């Protein structure tokens, strides 16, 4: 019979037909890079890709990038110190939600327009004197906000979980959820929420 065509069309692999069928060996990574975007700061989380193929990245500044050629569409001058590793996007695709700090170093949840990166509203996080601006602020949001059809849910470093409305108002605050670290809130279709906590024990 005719030899099997093993070419999968991927320029990043070397394709060959072996005894057991097709074999794919990874090629040179450099030859597979379609584009690179030079950003300011360290990228600690995965990019967020929307239905219109725009890539959103949380570096020092929240940044929008074209997935077709890597050109920077905008860099938000309103969100310049991201604490969340990645933004989440609203169900209508018009807003991004991300944890960051304001000009005074205070933790907040920011809602940003996907079109140009301007700040739509901010929700200051914290109760009383529990928050202490700085890298170890328990009120910082070190995880990706969770967006559902009813609210935005944020988990702070060690100051509980918050439910925030789509216009930046507080629904509720669960202050007993401490030792959260970088765990995000996971919602279920039954209305329950799940989050990982650190108990202080080595397990």
- Count the DSSP helices: 1
Number of strands: 16
- As residue ranges, the low-confidence spans are none
Shape: elongated
Structural class: mainly beta
Helix and strand element order: EEHEEEEEEEEEEEEEE
What fraction of the residues are assigned to beta strands by DSSP?
25-35%
* Helix content range: under 10%
Q: What Rg is obtained from the alpha carbons, in whole angstroms?
A: 21 Å
The spatial strand order of the largest sheet comes to 3-4-5-6
How would you describe what is shown here?
With 203 residues, the chain is mainly beta. The protein has 1 helix and 16 strands. The strands form 5 sheets. It has a 4-stranded antiparallel β-sheet with strand order 3-4-5-6, with no helix packed on it. It has a 4-stranded antiparallel β-sheet with strand order 7-8-9-10, with no helix packed on it.
Descriptive keywords:
single chain, 203 residues, mainly beta, 4-stranded antiparallel β-sheet, 1 helix, 16 strands, 2% helix, elongated
Itemize the secondary structure elements and their pairings.
Elements: E1 13-18, E2 21-26, H1 29-32, E3 48-49, E4 54-58, E5 62-66, E6 72-75, E7 88-89, E8 95-101, E9 107-113, E10 119-124, E11 146-147, E12 152-155, E13 161-164, E14 170-174, E15 186-187, E16 193-194
Antiparallel strand pairs: 1-2, 3-4, 4-5, 5-6, 7-8, 8-9, 9-10, 11-12, 12-13, 13-14, 15-16
Give a short summary of the structure.
With 203 residues, the chain is mainly β. Helices cover 2% and strands 34% of the residues.
């Amino acid at each position: 019979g005719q030899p099997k065509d093993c070419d999968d069309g991927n320029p990043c692999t070397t394709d060959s037909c072996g005894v057991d069928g097709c074999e794919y060996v990874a090629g040179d990574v450099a030859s597979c890079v379609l584009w690179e975007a030079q950003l300011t700061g360290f990228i600690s989380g995965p990019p967020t890709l929307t239905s219109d193929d725009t890539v959103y990245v949380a570096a020092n500044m929240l940044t929008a990038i074209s997935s077709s050629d890597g050109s920077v569409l905008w860099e938000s001058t309103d969100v310049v110190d991201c604490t969340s590793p990645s933004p989440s996007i609203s169900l209508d695709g018009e807003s991004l939600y991300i944890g960051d700090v304001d000009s005074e170093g205070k933790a907040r949840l920011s809602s940003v327009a996907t079109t140009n990166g301007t700040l739509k509203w901010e929700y200051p996080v914290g109760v009383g004197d529990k928050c202490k601006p700085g890298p170890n602020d328990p009120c910082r949001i070190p995880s990706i906000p969770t967006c559902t059809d009813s609210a935005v849910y944020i988990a702070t470093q060690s100051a509980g979980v918050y439910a925030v409305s789509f216009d930046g108002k507080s629904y509720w605050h669960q202050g007993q959820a401490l030792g959260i670290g970088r765990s995000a809130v996971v919602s279920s279709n039954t209305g329950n929420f799940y989050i990982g906590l650190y108990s202080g024990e080595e397990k």
